[in-house]
Design goal:
Blueprint: E1 14-16, E2 28-32, E3 35-39, E4 48-54, E5 61-67, E6 88-92, E7 95-102, E8 106-112, E9 123-126, E10 131-138, E11 144-150, H1 152-155, E12 160-169, E13 172-185, E14 197-201, E15 204-211, E16 218-224, E17 232-237, E18 248-254, E19 260-267, E20 273-283, E21 286-289, E22 304-306, E23 335-336, E24 345-347, E25 351-354, E26 356-357, E27 370-373, E28 379-386, E29 394-401, E30 404-413, E31 416-425, E32 432-439, E33 443-451, E34 455-461, E35 468-469, E36 474-475, E37 485-492, E38 499-508, H2 510-513
Parallel strand pairs: 26-37
Antiparallel strand pairs: 1-22, 2-3, 3-4, 4-5, 6-7, 7-8, 8-9, 10-11, 11-12, 12-13, 14-15, 15-16, 16-17, 18-19, 19-20, 20-21, 23-27, 24-25, 25-38, 27-37, 28-33, 28-38, 29-30, 29-37, 30-31, 31-32, 33-34, 34-35, 34-36
Length: 516
């Protein structure tokens, strides 16, 4: 299998941003000893809440998920824009905590002693619509708190940060909201303030919180000598003269050598929300982030910088993407379009996906789409499929899913195999089905090319060499707060049964594997 097509580590003691050129939205990071752990949003995909690990803050690997399933039956079907929003991760004592907001249901906490093992089931500290972006905080006196923001789309207002006491009840932690209250109102100076992360340094409590909106906003820091405020405010990171629009929500971490760093995301269109690493230092009790700092202490993002001094040397790497479908388990890069069942797939000469009855649903509305994040703004993807196990009325192929769902699908009908292209806008409308050709081989290679994060081009063949273009490109459009995802579809019409066999799923750089 080919290696990653985007590597941040330059191999010369420097790194380039983004450190993760993939959709790890709303990252939160902690250090435990020499290891760093990151969690990110996953919305209605399952398994949920990816967990990544690094020892140098630059090279990251996907190592686990916090939840195998989303905790409500409604997530057995795709629920775009809902599900697991911006989580936070902390370790207190020998227990890891991940707080996950479900904007339509409440805020859940998951715990584990070993983050690479199995996490607990969801325990809700509050059941209330519109509470988002939670961050727990254990104070010096043992008091446990949670700071959070609000989603206007669910509760009718935003731009307010709220602090609650977390207390221990018979059934675990719960948020004592009656004893809490709003601690910061950003309507006048920090509109759409959200994503708060609460820390303490010296005599001050600090809240790192983005404001101004995802695409064009900035990073703000609040400080106070009392956890309940009042809080002073300072904008500490803006786009400035750089190409990094809206440097947004993230985490302050340190190294064992005493350096400070800030991890945040950027909305990069079709690729999704990519992750950046910024140098950070302290001056007069305020964090200074990035470079080219103005007189007010506001910096700009860096694009290339020396690697953090973590005391650990790592081989350049990135989260896995290509897959040979060997062994007997799915790679961690794969997520389903909704809660899943383990009898949807098996292994044997590749990955076999069961063609589940579609019930007439559009491809984008099928729960059993097997998807992954795209790994770069440009690539050539080659997928090798075997269609011999597709029964009459069964369909299988490759799908690109964002606001537009675009796919090349093989169909067995009337004893023959046919290839068709299916497109639809996810938010409404029927699928547009275009017949392409009759297939005379049970093997098919499908290639998908993404150029400049903007246009998608399809090709297909039966021998892996003589590709035929599918007429017309499509616009690469992100989904609802998520980047474009690409993967496999298998479904049946009219009660047919069968399986789609995937033999390989390989990403390559354009300059190596295909022309622009």
């Amino acid at each position: 299998m080919n290696g990653p097509i985007w590597i941040s580590d330059q191999g010369d003691g420097f790194y380039r941003n983004p450190i993760l050129y993939s959709d790890y939205s709303d990252p939160d990071v902690i250090r435990v000893g020499s290891a760093y752990y990151m969690v990110a949003s996953s919305f209605s995909n399952a398994p949920a809440v990816p967990l990544l690990r690094s020892e140098d803050l630059v090279n990251w690997q996907l190592v686990n998920y916090v939840a195998e399933r989303l905790p409500y039956e409604r997530y057995d079907r795709p629920q775009r824009g809902s599900g697991a929003w911006a989580p936070s991760i902390r370790r207190y004592g020998d227990l890891f905590y991940v707080f996950v907001p479900f904007p339509d249901e409440g805020i859940a906490v998951y715990t584990a002693r070993d983050p690479l093992g199995k996490w607990s089931d969801a325990h809700f500290v509050i059941r209330s619509r519109g509470w988002i972006d939670p961050c727990p905080f254990l104070d010096d006196d043992g008091s446990f708190y949670m700071v959070n923001a609000f989603a206007k789309s669910r509760i009718g207002f935003k731009s307010v940060l709220y602090l609650s006491r977390l207390r221990e009840g018979e059934n675990g932690l719960w948020a004592d909201t009656d004893s809490g209250g709003a601690i910061f109102d950003g309507h006048e100076t920090q509109p759409t303030v959200e994503g708060p992360k609460l820390y303490k340094r010296g005599d001050y409590y600090y809240i790192f919180a983005p404001a101004g909106g995802v695409k064009n906003g900035w990073q703000t820091v609040l400080r106070s000598k009392k956890i309940t405020g009042p809080y002073e405010e300072r904008v500490v990171l803006r786009q400035g003269s750089t190409s990094v629009n809206g440097p947004h929500q993230g985490a302050w971490v340190d190294t064992p050598s005493g350096e400070d760093w800030f991890i945040h995301f950027q909305d990069a269109g079709a690729v999704g929300r990519v992750v950046h690493l910024q140098p950070m230092r302290w001056e007069d009790g305020w964090p200074v982030i990035g470079e080219n700092t103005d007189p007010n202490g506001c910096g700009e993002p860096v694009m290339r910088y020396r690697k953090p001094d973590t005391g650990v040397s790592c081989e350049p790497c990135a989260p896995q993407s290509s897959d040979a479908f060997e062994g007997d388990s799915l790679g961690l890069q794969w997520q389903w379009n909704a809660n899943f069942s383990r009898d949807w797939y098996r292994f044997g000469g590749g990955l076999l996906l069961k063609a589940l009855p579609s019930g007439g649903a559009r491809i984008c509305d099928l729960p059993n789409l097997l998807l992954q994040k795209i790994p770069a703004p440009e690539f050539l993807l080659t997928v090798r499929l075997n269609l011999s196990s597709l029964g009459e009325g069964c369909c299988g192929g490759v799908v690109s899913l964002g606001r537009l769902c675009d796919s090349l699908i093989a169909v067995r009908s009337g004893g023959g195999l046919f290839l068709e292209r299916r497109k639809c806008l996810v938010n409404g409308g029927k699928e547009e089905i275009t017949p392409l050709c009759r297939l005379f081989s049970e093997e098919i290679y499908i290639r998908l090319r993404l150029e400049r994060g903007e246009r998608l081009y399809w090709e297909y063949c039966s021998d892996g060499e003589n590709y035929v273009p599918a007429e017309g490109s499509s616009e690469a459009l992100p989904g609802a707060w998520v980047g474009l995802k690409i993967g496999l579809a298998a479904f049946s019409r009219n009660g047919g049964s069968g399986e789609l066999r995937a033999r390989s799923f390989v990403f390559e750089p354009l300059e190596k594997g295909g022309k622009k």
